[in-house]
Amino acid sequence: MQELTHYIDGTHTKGTSGRFADVMNPATGEVQAKVPLASTDEINAAVEIAAKAQPAWAAVNPQRRARVMMKFVALLNRDMDKLAEALSREHGKTLPDAAGDVQRGLEVVEYCIGAPHLLKGEYTDSAGPGIDMYSMRQALGVTAGITPFNFPAMIPMWMFAPAIACGNAFILKPSERDPSVPLMLAELMEEAGLPKGILQVVNGDKEAVDAILHNDVIQSIGFVGSTPIAEYIYATGCANGKRVQCFGGAKNHMIVMPDADMDQAADALVGAGYGAAGERCMAISVAVPVGDETADRLIEALVPRIEKLKVGPYTAGNDVDYGPVVTAAAKANIERLVQTGIDQGAELVVDGRDFKLQGYEEGYFVGPHLFDRATPDMDIYKHEIFGPVLTTVRAQTYEEAIGLAMDHEYGNGTAIFTRDGDTARDFANRINIGMVGINVPIPVPLAYHTFGGWKKSVFGDLNQHGPDAFKFYTRTKTVTARWPSGIKEGGEFSIPVME
Hints:
Elements: E1 2-3, E2 6-8, E3 11-13, E4 20-25, E5 30-36, H1 40-59, H2 62-78, H3 80-91, H4 95-112, H5 115-118, E6 123-128, E7 131-139, E8 142-146, H6 154-165, E9 169-173, H7 180-191, E10 199-201, H8 206-214, E11 218-224, H9 227-239, E12 243-247, E13 252-256, H10 262-274, E14 284-289, H11 292-307, H12 328-343, E15 347-350, E16 369-372, H13 379-382, E17 389-392, H14 398-407, E18 410-411, E19 413-417, H15 421-430, E20 435-438, E21 454-455, E22 458-459, H16 467-472, E23 474-482
Parallel strand pairs: 1-5, 8-9, 8-11, 9-10, 11-12, 13-14, 13-19, 14-17, 16-17, 19-20
Antiparallel strand pairs: 2-3, 4-5, 6-7, 7-23, 12-22, 15-16, 18-21
Helix pairs in contact: 1-8, 2-4, 2-7, 3-4, 4-6, 10-11
């Protein structure tokens, strides 16, 4: 049995708490490794190392820090296949999807190569008689991130790349369900030239999370996961004086207008709803066709596509559409919600409950499900299922359709499929959701824009990656300077103002 480690001060370090979690193979249901769960003392020791290493790293000029990011990008490309295989083995994603996970993180690293420009301050010459004024963006110190199982490469890089490019040290607490790729990323960062102690990976559960929240040295915390935990981390971290950004749950609607290209819409829904077994915070889980005729045409187009989906392990080849969900508990929760949908009166058009994969009967595979005629009071509509389940809610008008998305407590992503520019423009302007797609089913912004939802999908003022990341991981210091110039005005006893 493989025993995984932490990565502390540039070394693979065995856990000392005596506590471990099983790392499963989701395709077979077998334990493939054990990962140590850090104690509070282990977290604090890693933070102490980071605090000692960080000042020297912050003193390195931004261009040299950017060169580490350049080298890291080259190493990610070199090891792409190795990283994707390790990710698929622990998460269950198909290999192309796993490589996409790495690639979307890599793109944020590429953006961080621009740190010398992004960290520039502002300057005002002669703000007053002989007075100049300028601002500086400076690193926070030791920062931390708590990342989820569903993107074990992408989201850690979304956090640690900008944090480190800004001159911070970073403590990464990845999901204990698939920890191997985060450990590999830390190794590659040091191969790229990052000093020891600047990026450390400490595996753990709630004890490690609470240790991060209550450690006085840690200045900021990033989190991605469920909304209840996001609320807890945000409230606790802020109460402890930290800068916190937390991203929670989602229930993403895709509105299909009568004039939409129905084949395009159906293809988009199948990919966005069932890709990665639905374990994406940007998955489309609710289809909202406008009008019964539109709904009937959409369902007719969806059913054969869904029934043809190939479900299997990543080892079965690149034509597999999606793999298992991550744990037996996740599978049981999906099955429970599907049954709740049936009990509450939704019409199960595609029934994946009896799905079995020969030779993988103990794996966590869930067949694809499609509900029609669901209503907003049903659990399958209200709650994030995080599985291969697409729910259709019929709306009679555009106003009713947009109202469904706007009234839902989550506001992560949404989309509309239409040929009408006026409708699309109105939707983009009115919708109270953070990321909007127009004939784009998963509107995840590219690295040089920011990623973030609204409502109960986010807690904090700044988004992930893009310009917001450089604001989140730095503080602004403003300097007012005057040099001796022969001006003798005597003391000032009131607040100086410009006349």
